[in-house]
Each structure stands twice: as structure tokens, then as C-alpha cells.
Amino acid sequence: MNAAADCEIARTRLIGLGTARHHVASRVSSRKRTVPAPARARLGRCKLQTPSRRLLLMVLFVLAVLPLHAADVVSGFEQANKLYEEGKYSLAAKAYDKLIEAGAISEAIYFNRGNALFKLGQIGRAIASYREAQELAPRDPDLRANLQFARTQARGGEPYHEGIWQRYIELLSINEWTALTVAAFWVFFALLAVAQWRPDRSLRVWFLVSALAIVVPGISLACALNTDYFNTTAIVVTGEAEVRNGPLDESQTAFKVRDGAELNVLDRKDDWLQVLDASQRVGWVRQSQVIVVSPSARQKLST
Known about the structure:
Blueprint: H1 3-11, H2 51-85, H3 89-101, H4 107-119, H5 123-136, H6 141-154, H7 164-169, H8 174-197, H9 203-230, E1 232-236, E2 240-244, E3 253-258, E4 262-269, E5 272-276, E6 282-286, E7 290-292, H10 295-302
Antiparallel strand pairs: 1-4, 1-7, 2-3, 4-5, 5-6
């Protein structure tokens, strides 16, 4: 990153770009526990284990191993944060990658990795990491601010503005929209059961309210699913990628996109992706020049 960009970061309120978060999601426990020593084996005839005893031993083994894994994750997270604070952004990014590969899924890890990648000037990879974090914490203000700032840098300094509908959909995660819709359905059926048991005209108003409560989150859930699961997004992670008229190196260049550009994937052929940019231009780009952000999109691309 050049000096001007660093100064711009310093003038913004992006707290996350200056410091690394020092916590991991609740699924990783930092509580220190000791693993009980194995009991001394008795000599003599082997005792056959019943299925229930085997299940109990498996549960005890898992309970003994999980704290060790959690301790390793917390230790690795603290080491990665230390590397970030020392300005060793490349090593910090690799440390965060190692945690993710080990199965440590956390908004804080993705957030800090995005900050490290942004410091390295890898805008596209930073945006991808921020978007992964946003799936876990859609309402985090620091995360939303950093993502918007990175998108602005990817557009050459042109401010990035989210639409009102997009901001509304991103208020909740897919799981939260699903839970809200299911809860509305349960309320509706509960009112229906009450009406069958005790007919009352005053319940009609509550029927209308509950029906509306189903429609609103239901539509929001459908839109969120369409955005995250049915539309595949690819982010450019090279300095500049050439988008061609066809899926061949010999095809003429249609247009170019810079690092951090977010493209909609329309089709795939071999190692090429047919993409649509924000200006509604269509072309083909090599898959090695982009990264797909959502797990569902990666799964679709691998089939």
C-alpha cells in the first residue's frame, strides 16, 4: 500500500484496520482444562464392551480432545494477532489461514485476516475475507465499515454505496431469516388452533397480523437465499484481469477489471467463468484470477 492510502486509512473511523480483534467466537472455548490421565490397564482376561459402554467411551474421548483443540486455536489466534500488531501482515495472514484450515470458523478470524490482506494491498482477497465474516456477523459496524472502505478502494476511490434493499437483507443472516420465518409460521398455526378451540371474531385481526408477519420475513428469506445461494459471486484477486469474449486465451479482450471487482458468475466452461460486471458487461475470465466467496458457490463450481 502506498503512503497516501495509509493516510486515508488513518483519517477514517475504521477501527478494525488499526488493531486486531482479540476474541474468538463462542464455539471456541478459551477455558483451560486438564485431560485426565488414562487408567492403568488390568492384566488378565479381556472384558467385552457393550454398545452403550463403547458409546460412553467415545463421548468421553471427544470431551477430552475438544479442550485441547480449543486451546490450540486460541493460542494460534493470539499468535496471529501478535504478528499483525508487529506489522508482519504476510505472516499474520498465513497464521489466520492456518486456523481456518484447521476448522476454526469465526467472524473475528475472517475479520482480522481481511485487515492483514488489506494492509498487504490484496484488496480482492480482503473483500472476500470480509464477506465471509459478514456471513457470521451481518450487523457488525466495524466489519461493514471496513468492507465498504475496501470496496471503495477497489473502485479507484469512487465511493461504494449499498442499496436500501441490500442493506435491509444483510441485517440478518440466512439462519436468522429462517428462524424468524419459522417462528411466524408457528404463531400463525397457534392462532389457528386457538380459533378452532375457541372461535372469536377478534382473532381475525391477529390472523392478518400473523399472516403479514409470515410474508415479510418469507420474502426477505427468499431474497437472501437468491443472493447467497442461487447467485454465484466471484471477486478478482489479481492486479488486473482480462475479460475475454470467449473461453479461450486467443479470444479478444472485451474489457478489463481490477483487483477487488465483484462479478456475477453466469456459466462455467473448463477453467473459465462467464461473468457479468456492474456495468452489465458479459465476458469470460480465468477461474485462477478470481475467488468465489461463499461455500455454496464453491460447491456449485466444483460440480
